[in-house]
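re: ur msg from earlier - yeah i can do the OOB complex, just paste it... oh wait u already did. ok heres what im feeding in:
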Amino acid sequence: MTDTEHTWSEAESARFRKAGHWEGVTFGARLRRAAADRGDRVALVDGDRRWTYADLDAEADRVAHGLRALGIGRGDRVVVQLPNCAEFVLVWFGLQRLGAVPVHAMPGHRRREIGHLVRVSGAAACVVPDRHARFDHRELMRSVQEENGPGRSPRTVVVVGEPGRHSGFVSFKALREASPSPHALSAPGADDGGAGPGDVALLLLSGGTTGLPKLVARTHDDYAYNARACSEVCALDERTVYLAVLPIGFNFTFACPGVLGTLMAGGTVVVAPDPSPQTAFALIEREGVTLTSLTPPLVTHWMDEAASGSWDLSGLAVVQVGGARLPEEQARKLGPALGVTVQQVFGMAEGLINLTRLDDPEDLRCTTQGRPVSPDDEIMVVDSLGRPVPDGSTGELLTRGPYTPRGYYRAEEHNRTAFTPDGFYRTGDVVRQLPTGHLVVVGRIKDQINRGGEKIAAVEVEEQLLAHPAIIAAALVGVPDERRGERTVAFVVCDGEAPGVREVAAHLKGRGLAGFKAPDEVVQVPGLPLTAVGKVDKATLAKESLQR
Ligand code: OOB
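and the outut:
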């Protein structure tokens, strides 16, 4: 199987090229051109450190040179698990320069998620911090290597910070300093390792509904279009200063329009080391930030801090909110509270991005989740039998288009049900489409919980709950929560007394699961209710938990 098997047919590709969506330029080549066109403009800011486009280009060469010396080359996958820091961007472009493929991991991922990413992608290397949020990522890498057996992947670990005593771990500093000079790579393929625009440029992690998360392979052509289409809707230009508040590897932060959209428009990306309003507001003042993106749970904190009146946020023009449904009331308050235009973003790692337009009437901006960014995004709203519903009725959203690949990466079996035979992705989201084309997200049919933008596949957690000696049956359910939109409740059937929330969290942590997947509440029940066809009746469980 080739990695580009789930991309578009030759006829469709020709259509997207002809329409001008796909420009036929790799990310490595784009950076080279940007350095030539606007080398002295500031591209990236992290604390006191600044990189112009020329610096970023030279840095990509240095990193590429160092990685190449470690045996990494075109097509190799490299898991990047870094917190918000400039190194994420430097490593990302260093990999692009080699034609290698970054796999975007989240800082909160642990042994189970990282081990899975490494195995599915067949990663040659991982790039991690030494420690972050009181967690030692070197230990995590060591246990992944151990789990995969002697000599198994990842064979190389690059550490931003202190590599420690682990043999074979390389420091990022040493790696980049080993380069003899900037522009050390020699032609041909000096810009992108000889990668083609239709090749896979990166792998994104899907929110997931299955026991093990799926990966989405995005090509240079499609992902650049994703970023550019969003950037056009947001009217970005060289004056744009984007603040990366959410995890930088999250598709929303990275390319909707985010980091890539800003760099492609000639603007400046500022990295926020944490999402607190205090940190962000200080950067907004100092750097003249014009655009940022948030998930709904951050909105309240930001409004509270803005109300203190001690910050000058006058440069900030647009705040995007997405990843989970933004309640209308908050949408209406946020604009005036921060003195900005609020833009709703309904997107997915699988492709399709919807944005409210900056000049949409206020009602549309506050009550809808936007409309597709590309004129060639196809939308279908269907009933449970897959038949289109009448206009304006609710149903499952299916989509196909120039930046929505036709299948998950190396997931043949899952693809048979996740996509229709004619290539539409079944989002699992229940929506209603207005005559203006705007979508309103009203619910979900996929077995996934959206905890304020953090996606949790119920089965993944249930499988691990069953590994607890006292738990006989388990169902993870999302119930409404004021702050996060949803919180998780684990209903468990036990032999004897049920473990408490803390014990369950410790158990899941011991199983290597990311911390945000631990249930917010554990409820013991004598048995799980079943539907007429014998599935666990999660709707009834959710209702019961509300009545408690
Ligand atoms: C973003 O991407 P993912 O892959 O973490 O999650 C996608 C899912 C969607 O299928 C939907 O269920 C939910 O997250 N979602 C929203 C939403 N935005 C995403 N549900 C309601 N309202 C919204 N505004 O979450 C993502 C990727 C790119 C840009 C923005 C978000």
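cool cool. The mean pLDDT is 95. ping me if u need the other ligands too
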